[in-house]
Amino acid sequence: MEFRVKDLALAEEGKNRIDWAEAHMPVLVALRQKYEKTKPLKGIRVAGCLHVTKETGVLVRTLKAAGAELSWCGCNPLSTQDDVAASLAKDEGIAIFASRGVTSKEYYDDIHSAMKLDPHVTIDDGADLTVEMHKGMPKSIRGGTEETTTGVIRLRAMQKAGKLAYPIIAVNDAETKHDFDNIYGTGQSALDGIIRATNILVSGKNVVIAGYGHVGKGVARRAAGLGANVIVTEVDPIAALKAKLDGYSVAKMNKAAEIGDIFVTTTGCKDVIVDRDIAKMKDGAILANAGHFNVEISIPGIESQTVQKKEINDHTMQYSLKNGKRVYLIGEGRLVNLAAAEGHPSEVMDMSFANQFLAVLKLAQQGQTMKPLVYNIDKAQDQEIALAKLQSMGVEIDSLTPAQKAYLEGFAEGT
């Protein structure tokens, strides 16, 4: 078996971490137990391009138990947990090509190595694997999934341009993904990354959050919970209005730049913080990105004003500017929750990866009959996963009576 990891000697530590995650992912484990005997993915080749974390390790185990043949690579140069990658190679026996801190060339080399499996199904986070698959004529491909907002945006653009060659299920758009993974997962883990990298006191700070989508809402809520004064910047008037009515200040970035202590970008767009904003910042301002790609904070915009760079720790770079001030960039402007921390808590990824598993199952069985479009997760699947999660937490809910169902589905009853 071909693979590329940093150090196989890390495998035992990685296995322990995957075991820990598995103990906190009951929905995905229940799916494994349901399908490991029938093996509906037997003969199906799956190529994954996801953050190589302990939670991803549980997904890999589940796909493998269902019969899939797997290849894998990381979807971000700084998000791979090397011990987990080692365990997936040694203990799970999959063709994995991933290590932390790869160059851009090495990153794409790993993607191309994973593609050699000639997959029936792709699992992607950010759409880099999917885009690379489209550069050569897909051979055995039946369909793919997409995990994150940025990737879904790219793939819908491909569909609009008539360039999408095979069906994609937008796992990100499932309510049990973006309403939980993005809000509760990123909300907690982004601040975790900032605190691990700096040990700064959040309470009393002005925290500027660029974007008030699901991720922005989550980060804002948790920053406020830690005592921060939250300032939101937006381009969407509806999102800005929501932020204002949720109790946060709303301002343009050029104003927020002058008063912010900590900046977190969450938009999925590029050039959210640029050179003119950086020039206005306080001495000691901290910059972090919680969007998928490292284009939200303009690194060239920082470096164009820099007279000296100094690495403070493995995650934090100090930039001394021409105006005498210093700014600090965490994780090279990449996903702060994975570059400087461990990513989302396992309990949240349980639902996201349950959606991934069921989407792969659907594509393996029906992908050849589906049109090359971006599809949403079925509402019934969303509700099934939410109910399973509640049950694992010991929570019971009511159900509609026949009379209530008839009332909601009818129109005859009035005042």
UniProtKB/TrEMBL annotation:
Its main location: cytoplasm. InterPro entries: Adenosylhomocyst_ase-like_sf, Adenosylhomocysteinase-like, Ado_hCys_hydrolase_NAD-bd, NAD(P)-bd_dom_sf, S-Ado-L-homoCys_hydrolase_CS. Pathway: Amino-acid biosynthesis; L-homocysteine biosynthesis; L-homocysteine from S-adenosyl-L-homocysteine: step 1/1. It is an enzyme of class 3 (hydrolase). May play a key role in the regulation of the intracellular concentration of adenosylhomocysteine. The gene is ahcY1. It catalyses: S-adenosyl-L-homocysteine + H2O = L-homocysteine + adenosine. It is found in: Cytoplasm. Its EC number is 3.13.2.1. This is Adenosylhomocysteinase. Its cofactor is NAD(+). NAD(+) binds at residues 148-150, 182, 211-218, 234, 290-292, 337, 344.
